[in-house]
Amino acid sequence: MSEFEPLVDRFGRRHNYLRISITDRCNFRCQYCLPATKIVWRPREELLSLEEIGRLVRVFSRCGVDKLRITGGEPTVRKGWQTLLRDVSSVSGITDRLMTTNGTGLAQHASELAELGLTGVNISLDSLRRDRFREITRQDSLDEVLTGIEAALAAGIPRVKLNVVVMAGVNEDEIPDFVAFANERPLQVRFIEFMPFLGNGWKVDRVIGYREMLEQIKPHFELQPRDGHPSDVAKEFDLIGGAGSIGFITSMTDSFCGGCNRLRITADGLLKTCLFLPGNLSLRDLMRAGADDTEIEQAIRAALLTKWEGHPPMEQWRQLDNLTMMEIGG
Ligand code: SAM
Ligand code: SF4
Q: How many CB atoms lie within 10 A of CB 218?
C-alpha cells in the first residue's frame, strides 16, 4: 500500500470518510428535506461532471479516505450513476462504498449494486403507511420502496439500513412498527432526529429526542446496547431475539462532533467540513481553473484546518447556511 499523509484537522481528528452528492435533483419532494416553495434546479453545467467526481475521489483516497458515500438529491436519478459507481469501485484504498437512496431504484438495480461491490445502502423510509408516506414524500411510492428494500436484502448487499426521520405529529407513533420491521429482517432501522435546514418547516417542538423514542420502544422490545466507536454517529442496539437492530442519530439532543471523521462535497463541488456550516471551498472551480491534484489536495488540507471543534448552537446554524438538505446530501 502506498504511503499517505492523512487528512487531519487542527484538533487532531483524522478525516477518512467522504460523502459526495452526485445530483441536486430528486424524484421525491420530502417535506422535511425541501422548502415548500418552488425548487429551482441548478443548471447542469454547474454540477460536477462524473469525471470530476471520479477525480476528486482519487485525490481523497490518496489522502487516506477509505470510506465513500454516494448521495444526492436522489443518486439514482443522475444519468450514468452506475458508470460512476463502477469507476469509484476500482479506486484503490476505498474499502467501504456506500449509498444513500430513497429506494425507488433498488428493485431494478440492487443486484447490479451488489455486483459493483457496494458494501452498504441506506434507504430512506419515514412511514409504513401508504397515505402518510405519500404525504411526507409527495409521491405514492411506498410499495416500490418496500420492494426495493427486499431486493437489497436478497441481492446480498452487506449492510442495509433504513433512515427514518422522526417528526412530532407526523410519524412518531410508528416507532414501534419500525422496530418490529427490523425485528423481522437483517437490517438496521436508524431513527434520525429532525434537523433544521433551509425552509423545511423545522420547529423545536417537532423534534423527538432519542431518549423519548427509547421510552416508546422499551415496553415492547428487549434491547442490548452495542459498543460504539468514537466516530460512530449512531447509538446502536441489538434486538434480542430479533433479526435486525436499531440505531439513533442524535444530532439534536446529543451531538457527536468529538469523533467527527466526515467531509462532504455538494453536487456543485463545494467542500463542507461540517454538515451545519457553509462550504467555503469550491473544488469544482479549482478543477476548472486548471489546478493539478497536488494543488487540490493542498486546498483541502487548508480548508480542514478551518474546521470548528463542534457545530454552532442550534439557533445559530440555521442562520449560517443557505443550503437545503437535498443540496447537502445528508
Ligand atoms: N435521496 C436520498 C435519500 O432520501 O435517502 C439521499 C439524499 S437525502 C438528503 C439523505 C438523508 O438525509 C435521508 O436519509 C434523509 O432522510 C435525511 N434528511 C433529509 N432532511 C433531513 C432533516 N431535516 N433531518 C434529518 N434528516 C434529514
Ligand atoms: Fe429526495 Fe432524499 Fe430529500 Fe426525500 S430526503 S426529497 S428522497 S433527497
A: 10
Whether 34 lines ligand 2, by a CB cut-off of 6 Å, is yes
Give residue-wise pLDDT tens across range 281-313. 999 999 999 999 999 999 999 999 988 888 777
Ligand that comes closest to the CA of residue 34? 2
Alpha carbons 330 and 264: distance in angstroms, whole number: 9
Q: What is the pLDDT of residues 223-246, one digit of tens each?
A: 999 998 877 889 999 999 999 999
What ligand 1 atom has the least distance to the C-alpha of 74? Answer: 1
Domains and CATH numbers, the chain: 17-328 (3.20.20.70)
Which residues approach ligand 1 with their CB closer than 6 A?
26, 32-33, 71-72, 74, 100-102, 124, 163, 165, 192, 194-195, 197, 200, 325-326, 329-330
Q: Cα(23) to centroid of ligand 2, in Å?
A: 11
Question: Per the confidence metrics, is the pTM higher than 0.85?
Answer: yes
Query: Following CA atoms 54, 56, 59, 62 in sequence, which dihedral angle do they give, to the nearest 10 degrees?
Result: -60
Q: Which residues contact 283 (CB under 8 A, 6 or more apart)?
A: 48, 56, 265, 269, 270, 271, 296, 299, 300
